[in-house]
Every structure is written in structure tokens, then in C-alpha cells.
Design brief:
B: alpha+beta; OB fold (Dihydrolipoamide Acetyltransferase, E2P)
Chain lengths: 304, 366
């Protein structure tokens, strides 16, 4: 192999390295810039329904263009309590759903990781089997299950466990159930990966040194699986906060999640700047914990 | 220690122990007693069941049949965390999220000792394995040899009745391994704890143990002191597994005053051995270092002689190993100490006589 300075990769290497960046620029950074631009304009009745700002016709009058920016949409977010309520409810519903998902997924992942090797792939396939059916159809199916005259209520009444149907459908509880159900595989997979990697001798060593099965779990298995727990929590919590379909289909009039609020703003009120501002704020809210996680991970890596 | 069998009360007694994994019989009806304070080795090739037996003693596996009695208590169905036994793992299994001190203290915390007692014991253990001052390191900041010592300290911290060691030195390089062998023996003699070590390295088993069991296919081929097993192997497979050996098939043609005369394809040989029935098929087992190379007509006429040609030699520094092909086509190996200027070189191609006395070899049933 020829001696090549690793600091100066060749053209081929540069192209390969550039691909993911190009992807991010095209499909993340550019749309993000567009949304940010709309959020800084003012709403008008027209086509498009916002005052064009900072349109690109060369660099002339750069400052003048900057002055066109307006923070009205952001100010509007603080004035109508519906936005704050939406953010709080979204975080609460997503947070509760994430905790429940974690509590259900952990035993699943542990059981799969401890199963005989030839069974693990089959069990993992079962865990992700729901993906073979469309997400939308599965959520519609939950309507049939949860409705007052749905399968679950009918079964409970026939079994004389309840007399009156439980009102689950069209509540925040139904939204939580829908999120837990839909996102369970996203929690199981990173947990399984973390648990499967663990050296089984570690648990044996702890038992050998006098730890009860619960002690082994608390002091060895669980702490060593924390990277998987954090990855799973992020993979469920972040998309769940912005979830639109599940609250729309399973939620009721009380359900106020930011995804639906933005949809209403955008399509019903045709207030693009406010919808865009709400989206930007949501992004900042979600990137915050991610950045914290990155920081925490970097620090623990630096600590060794 | 009396050779062959233990003195004192047995600390471990296993009776008719069996364990199957699927269709494989890993441990096959084993019975054994190990005395308190003994350094015992389980030796055998991989898959012979030695690690399974160790894991049965630790409680990680439950036997399909038989009993395990440790310090007078039946431990057959007792889970690992309630056995007075600690294990040093082959991979060391140090907890990566804990410091060295936390690793060593783990077992002590489970015992519910006072904090100050734990700190004292941790310091004592660190000193015992000569790792003073490394208590705040994490396992990934340690060298292989240091990890091995932490694993040893952690397993000894609870002062177990028995320490189980699963290939304790396999991950160390050769020089460190030999040094650590000596230290391990000294440590065991000082602590008087019963050590049971599993190893596939016959040299290591011989150096470490006071008594060892040679295992094959889930059974004990032979149990005895290192000298017994080296000098008096019970059968062909033990003889071949422990050290290097020449095996020559033959038939007993005369038996007189404890001297057996064997006819082999290489010629007749006389061996001191217990009386064997006339005409019995036997193997004459000769260690390479018990043989001498002489000129075809040289040497003591009273000794056994096989004539042959040197077909290879490998210089080993302190000794030279010769490959000699006998007239009948049989290949033998002779080890010669390079003890000084007096030893004249024997070149490849030279015709030689392999000489050995009556007590140099033993007879094995075939």
C-alpha cells in the first residue's frame, strides 16, 4: 500500500465522505432553511400565504433584506396559550408513553438476548413483525379495539368484568396506548443490541461473588445496558413528541399535541409563518436533549 | 502431602456427578475428593469436560445426576451466590463500570460488611497481589497482567473455602505466565486456601498442582501427583498427553524376577515392571530424556539397545531433540542435555544406538 497522508484523502475517498453531507444538506439543511425563512415572514392572504422575505436575487441590499425579517410569528406563539399547552401536553404524553414503552421493552429485550442463539433471530423477527403491515392500518385497527362498542369493551362486558364500556377511545390514554404499541420495536432493538453485547461472564461473576439475581440485574446488567436505554428512549421520545397521526386518529377533543396544532395552523388557518415558527421551536426543544446526551457521552468517553 | 490420595478432611467431595449438554455427556459419572488446602488441577484437551466440572462446582450448571458436597454441606442444588466458593474467570470478567477497588469490594458489599472493614480488606487484597495504588483505575486502564491480578484479588476477597481458577494464565504471554505460576503457588501456600485450577497446559498443571486429574471425554483418565502421572501414566492417552513420549508396541515373551522381556519390531527389550501375563500385548513407553544416544557399539552392554539413523535434530538451547529412525522404520525421539563441551555433536545421518536401562521405561496395556 502506498504511503498516503491520512489527513489528505484522495478524490474517491472525498466523494464517499461527501455523500452523507450532501444528503443532509439537500434533505435536511435546505428544507430547514426554507421553514426558518417562512417563520420569519408575515402572514398574508394570498398565494403563497406569506410575505416573501429574503428572496435570493444577488447580495444587493443585504441589510435591507435582513430588515424584512419579522418575529411576529414567534411572538404569536407566546400570546396564544394553545401553543404552550400543546408543547406541554406533547412532552407529557410522549414522556409517559416512552417510560411505559421502556418498561415493556426491557423484559422483551432481555428475554431475547438470553434466549438460545438459534431462537434470537426468530424472536427479533416477531418483535418487528408489525412493520409488515402499514402503520396507518394498525392505528385504525386500534380504533376498532378501543371504541366503546369495540372488541376490548365487548370482551370485558361478556366476561362480566365491567358493566359499562370503558371510555378509552378518543382520550389521551388512547394516544399513549397507540404510541407505546407503534414505537415498541424501536425501543426493543437498541436494548437488545446493548444486552446481547454484554459478556455473560459478568453476570456469572456477580452471582459468584454473592449477588442475588435481583442484585445482579441492579448492579451489573442494568448499568451496563444504559447506552441502549438512552438510545431507545431518544428513538421513541423524539418522534413521539411530534407525532401527528396517532393523536389525530386515537385522540379526542381534549388531545392537544403540537403535531396536530401545526397541521391546523398550516392547512386550516393557512398561517404558514406561525406553523413554521412552531416547527422551529419544536426542533430546538428536541435538539436540546440530544445535544445534552452527546455532551454526556463525550464526557464519559473522555473519562474512559 | 501423601502422594496419590489426599490427607485430612475433604473440602470437596463429588459423587457420581454427570452433566449432559444435549447429546454430549460433558461430565460422566465422576467421583473425587479434594483435601482442604490442596492445589488441585483439572487437565485435559478442550471439550474434555474440565470447565463443565468447574462450573458445576461454582453452581453455574446443575448436574443431571450425582452430588456435590463442599465443606460438609450438600451444595448440589445451592445457587452460586450461596456457595462458599469463588471463581476467577478466564476472561477475568472484571466489571467495566467499576474501579479496581469497587471490583474487589463487590463480593464484600454483598456480605454486608462495614464500610471500614471493606476498605481495609480491599487494601489488603491489593497489597496481596502487588497492585497498591491502582485502586481508582478502571479495568480498561490496566494491562493484561494487572487485570489478572485484580481478578485474583476479587475472587480471594471473600476468603472462600475454595478458589476455582478457569485457565487463569492463558491470556498472559509466556514470560509473565511462568513468573505468575510461581507467584500463584507461593500465594496458595501462604493462604492455605484450596485452589482448583482448570488448564489445558500440561506443563502448567505439573508446575502448579500438588495433585491433578487428567480428563478425557468427561471422565478421569488418571488422578495423582504430577510425578505419578508423568512417571507412571495409567494408559496410552495420559502418556501421550503429558509430555513427550515414545510408544512401541510389543508382546511379553518372558517374565522373571520382576524383569519383563518384551519383543517389539525394533528388537527385544527388558523392562522392570510388575508381572504381566505371558503373551500380553503391551506398549513400551519411553520418555525422550530417559534415552541415551551412543555409537553403534558403544555404551553399556547390559543396557537395551535399538539401532537407528539420526534423521533430524532440533537445537533447543539447553537441550537437543533428535529424531531417530530405527531399522524397522519406527521413529523415536531422544532428548539430550547440552551440558558442556564433552557432548560430541551427532550429525544428521549418523548411525546410532539408542540405549536405555531396565528402569527407563514402563509398560502400558493396550
Amino acid at each position: 500500500m502506498s504511503a498516503r497522508d491520512p489527513k489528505f484523502p484522495g478524490l474517491g475517498q472525498r466523494l464517499v465522505l461527501a455523500m452523507p453531507f450532501l444528503w443532509l444538506v439537500l434533505f435536511f439543511l435546505l428544507p430547514f432553511a426554507l421553514v426558518a425563512k417562512v417563520s420569519l415572514s408575515q402572514s398574508v392572504l394570498g398565494q403563497p400565504p406569506y410575505q416573501p422575505v429574503f428572496d435570493w436575487h444577488g447580495l444587493s441590499d443585504f441589510l435591507g433584506k435582513l430588515r424584512q425579517f419579522s418575529a411576529d410569528a414567534y411572538v404569536g406563539l407566546t400570546q396564544d396559550p394553545i401553543y404552550l399547552q400543546s408543547y406541554v401536553d406533547s412532552v407529557l404524553i410522549a414522556g409517559i408513553a416512552t417510560i411505559i414503552t421502556l418498561l415493556i421493552a426491557y423484559p422483551f429485550a432481555l428475554a431475547i438476548a438470553r434466549a438460545p442463539r438459534r431462537w434470537r433471530i426468530v424472536l427479533l423477527l416477531f418483535a418487528i413483525a408489525p412493520f409488515w403491515t402499514s402503520f396507518l392500518i394498525r392505528i385504525y385497527a386500534w380504533i376498532l379495539l378501543l371504541k366503546d362498542e369495540g372488541l376490548i369493551n365487548n370482551a370485558l362486558i361478556v366476561l362480566h368484568i365491567i358493566r359499562e364500556p370503558l371510555h378509552i377511545f378518543a382520550t389521551n390514554g388512547a394516544v399513549v396506548i397507540g404510541i407505546v404499541y407503534s414505537y415498541l420495536p424501536f425501543m426493543i432493538l437498541p436494548l437488545y443490541a446493548a444486552l446481547d453485547r454484554q459478556d455473560k461472564a459478568l453476570a456469572e461473576a456477580a452471582a459468584d461473588l454473592g449477588a442475588t439475581p435481583w442484585g445482579v440485574f441492579k448492579r451489573i446488567t442494568l448499568p451496563l445496558s444504559m447506552p441502549g436505554v438512552i438510545a431507545g428512549v431518544l428513538m421513541v421520545f423524539i418522534p413521539a413528541v411530534g407525532e401527528f397521526v396517532i393523536p389525530d386518529l386515537l385522540g379526542g377533543s381534549e388531545t392537544l399535541m403540537i403535531g396536530s396544532t401545526m397541521w391546523n395552523e398550516f392547512f386550516a388557518n393557512r398561517d404558514w409563518p406561525t406553523a413554521s415558527a412552531a416547527a422551529i421551536v419544536l426542533l430546538v426543544l428536541l435538539v436540546g436533549p440530544l445535544a445534552l446526551y452527546e455532551h454526556w457521552q463525550m464526557r464519559s468517553e473522555a473519562r474512559g | 502431602m501423601a502422594p496419590g490420595d489426599q490427607t485430612g478432611d475433604p473440602i470437596v467431595r463429588i459423587e457420581g456427578l454427570s452433566k449432559n449438554f444435549g447429546t454430549v455427556r460433558a461430565v460422566d459419572d465422576l467421583s473425587l475428593s479434594i483435601a482442604a488446602g490442596e492445589f488441585f488441577a483439572l487437565l485435559g484437551p478442550s471439550g474434555c469436560g474440565k470447565t463443565s466440572l468447574l462450573r458445576l462446582l461454582a453452581g453455574f450448571e446443575t448436574p443431571d445426576a450425582g452430588r456435590i458436597v463442599i465443606a460438609g454441606n450438600d451444595m448440589t442444588d445451592v445457587p452460586p451466590h450461596r456457595r462458599p466458593v469463588n471463581m476467577m474467570f478466564q476472561s477475568y470478567a472484571l466489571f467495566p463500570h467499576m474501579t479496581v477497588a469497587q471490583n474487589i469490594a463487590f463480593g464484600l458489599n454483598q456480605q454486608g460488611l462495614a464500610k471500614s472493614d471493606i476498605a481495609g480488606r480491599v487494601a489488603e487484597m491489593l497489597h496481596l497481589v502487588q497492585l497498591d495504588g491502582l485502586d481508582r483505575r478502571r479495568p480498561d486502564q490496566l494491562s493484561g497482567g494487572q487485570k489478572q491480578r485484580v481478578a485474583l484479588a476479587r475472587a480471594l476477597a471473600r476468603r472462600p473455602a475454595i478458589l476455582l481458577l478457569d485457565e487463569p494464565l492463558a491470556a498472559l504471554d509466556k514470560n509473565l505466565r511462568e513468573e505468575t505460576q510461581t507467584e500463584l503457588v507461593a500465594l496458595q501456600q501462604r493462604l492455605k486456601t484450596t485452589f482448583i485450577v482448570v488448564t489445558h497446559d500440561q506443563r502448567e498443571a505439573i508446575v502448579l498442582s500438588q495433585r491433578l486429574a487428567v480428563m478425557r471425554d468427561g471422565r478421569f483418565d488418571q488422578v495423582g501427583t504430577p510425578a505419578e502421572i508423568y512417571e507412571q501414566p495409567a494408559n496410552r492417552s495420559v502418556a501421550e498427553f503429558i509430555g513427550e513420549i515414545n510408544l512401541i508396541d510389543g508382546e511379553v515373551i518372558a517374565s522373571e524376577n520382576g524383569v519383563q522381556t518384551i519383543a517389539t519390531e525394533a528388537g527385544k527389550a527388558q523392562v522392570l515392571a510388575q508381572s504381566v501375563p505371558m503373551g500380553a500385548r503391551v506398549a513400551l513407553a519411553l520418555r525422550p530424556e530417559r534415552l541415551r544416544l551412543e555409537k553403534p557399539n558403544g555404551g553399556d552392554a547390559a543396557m537395551n539397545h535399538f539401532l537407528g539413523t539420526v534423521t533430524g535434530r532440533s537445537y533447543r538451547g539447553d537441550s537437543t531433540l533428535f529424531d531417530v529412525t530405527l531399522a524397522c522404520g519406527l521413529k523415536m525421539r531422544v532428548l539430550r542435555q547440552n551440558s558442556g563441551a564433552g557432548t560430541d555433536a551427532v550429525p544428521v545421518g549418523a548411525t546410532v544406538a539408542i540405549c536405555f536401562s531396565e528402569d527407563a521405561g514402563i509398560l502400558l496395556k493396550t
